[in-house]
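One-letter codes give the sequence; the integers encode the fold. A sample entry reads:
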Amino acid sequence: MKKIVMTSLVIVLLASLILSSCAEETAEPTPAQTTPQQTTKPSEQVSRYLAIEPKPVERTEMPEPEKVYKLRYSDWGPPFIDLGVRAKEWMAAVEERTQGRIHIDGYWSESLMKADDTFRGVETGIADIALYVLGGSQGVHQINRVIDLPGTGIPTQTAQRDIYLKLRGKYPELDAEYGNTFPLFMRGLPAEHIHTTDKFHLVRTPDDLAGLKTYANALWTEQLGSKDASINNVAVMEMYTSLERGLIQGMFVHWLFIYSFGLTELMKYHAVVGEGGLGMQTFGYIMNRDSYAQLPDDLKKIFMDTTLEWSALSLSEDDPTTIAAGIALAEELGNEIAYLTDSEIAEWYEFAKPIQEQWIADSEAKGFSNARAIYDDMMQMIAEYE
């Protein structure tokens, strides 16, 4: 009996000890035992556990993206003619060679501005670059039109380009007249001949002009008027319908022009006035001076080199090919092509003389006192050109 009682007491005592121990482990800490507030940073705590110091984050500076210079190119013609095709190739080449740092957007068929507004539009920055025919914007250029004078006998487009460059280099007033624009390049268009529809007749000499309503270089206005003919320079996009309806019956232009704009089929007669034609108008790309000045020097070189390369391709490859295609089409259509005799060509050159004298007088009246000297110098260059 005593053994049983003693055993029970031992069990009770052990149970009490166990319960007492559990109570101590789960008891709430007294105020003196309260854990102090954490004052170390999480990163410091982590570093203790890892036994390493945290490394500062290294920030890599990203290079500034290179600026893209966006330019607007305006063209009064459509993009599918040879001039337009070459212009698109030129734009693509500029972008590729500058690795995208110059991007040129093309605006075609007078979608940005009318052909008559080309010069003022580029000068004021509506377009940065444009296809421009010298004299295409009336009242803008006077002294520069010496190179456009009809009947001077410039033999080829290459000769026209070279002589104009020499004149511009020798007489600074020519480039000054471009104002806030400058020529990226300027060269002669192909020689102009006389193309008429079946609503008129073949024009071999000035006496055949009576009654003709034609598209022509505006410098011809008074002389054509003296033969009872008139100039009606309709917009490019209106030429086809104007010829079709008889609003004009002819054009003093080059083969490339009537072929590119699909006008050959409306013509019936073609009078070819020698190799140099009645004259050559001057065209090229003009650019806003401020737009060019913003380009870094390395881009300027690439831009100019590419531009001159493409203009040379147009002169040496495109024009001869298209002129030949235009003549071939006229022959295929059964049009009459008359190659004028030397005496007939001389008659046209004599007929153009008053235009040249009038230009000299008008230029002097506008303050260009050396207009005759520039004209005489040009005529000497033409005579000596090889």
